[in-house]
Amino acid sequence: MSDARRFLPLSPQQFHILLALVDQPRHGYGVILDVADRTGGEMRMGTGTLYTAIARLLALELVADSDREHDRRRYYRITPLGRAVLVAETARLEALVRLARDGGVQPARGRS
Fold this sequence. Notes:
There is one protein chain. The chain is mainly alpha-helical. It is built from five helices and three strands; from the N terminus they run ααβααββα. The chain has one domain: Winged helix-like DNA-binding domain superfamily/Winged helix DNA-binding domain (Arc Repressor Mutant, subunit A, Orthogonal Bundle), CATH 1.10.10. A three-stranded antiparallel sheet has the order 1-3-2. A hairpin with an 8-residue loop joins strand 2 and strand 3 (about 75-80). The longest helix has 23 residues, at about 80-100. The chain is globular and about 55 Å long. The relative contact order is 0.19.
């Protein structure tokens, strides 16, 4: 896991892209839809932001192209390293939330 930590912190866009790819490969628009759905519309990514982030994730080998011969769209999948980085980033964020709560910061009522 220490190898994964060298990629931290992830940008919010990178985090959400990796999260969108955990359950299945997706094409760019599928990632955009998944992120919007998971965040209740709070995070909306434009195509420029998406493909800039994906290019960086590809260069870091956190995602890879998935070959799909029957479809002209380019699909992306999370790599084992990408999954390890996502786990490490999740642990980092959980530690930050724990620090905030220990410091007396609590979410507003009705939110988790």
